[in-house]
Amino acid sequence: MLPPFAAGIFLAAPMAAIMSTINAQLLQSSATIIKDLYLNIRPDQMQNETRLKRMSAVITLVLGALLLLAAWKPPEMIIWLNLLAFGGLEAVFLWPLVLGLYWERANAKGALSAMIVGGVLYAVLATLNIQYLGFHPIVPSLLLSLLAFLVGNRFGTSVPQATVLTTDK
């Protein structure tokens, strides 16, 4: 058991790290929205600093409010989002990574086919809560993603293997 002063310091440190991280992510998100979306659509507004500052403040406020609403009931929502995100990442990237590393005939068209089929199928199955033959949505997504990789791979060309330089004589 720590004395109250020491406990306060030990509790303040992680809270400060959390607040700093959220602050940085909010600022980065609003800057990304303004620079990558708004200024690409309206490049003439790049010199209008007061408007950009106002927009940055409003976007940061809106994003903060959305995050506050999302944090209102964290356990169920965070777990659902986490499972959906990791399942989606697995459905999109498993076969392009594994086959891209270990199969010398893998190519970009096969990888892109697998990524599109895996991601779209997982999103549809998970969103509509469809369990094909009682399996979790990741199972049919991975199987069809593999099939899409193999079919898409037929339409692409393999990149020639790079010459490996060695120091052996």
How does this structure look, described?
With 169 residues, this protein is mostly helical. The protein folds into two domains: 4-72, no CATH class; 77-155, no CATH class. It has five helices and no strands. The protein has helices at residues 4-41, 49-72, 74-102, 108-127, 138-155. It starts with a helix and ends in a 14-residue tail after the last helix. The mean pLDDT is 89. This is Sodium/panthothenate symporter. GO terms for molecular function: pantothenate transmembrane transporter activity; symporter activity. Its main location: membrane.
Strand portion:
under 5%
What is the count of structural domains?
2
Counting DSSP E segments of at least 2 residues, the number of strands comes to 0
- Report, as a whole number of angstroms, the end-to-end distance: 65 Å
Q: Per the principal axes of the C-alpha atoms, what is the gross shape? A: extended
**Tally of helical runs:** 5
Radius of gyration: 24 Å
Q: Outline the biggest β-sheet.
A: none
Helix content: over 70%
> Topology as H/E string?
HHHHH
Structure class: mainly alpha
Low-confidence stretches: none
The overall average pLDDT, rounded, is: 89
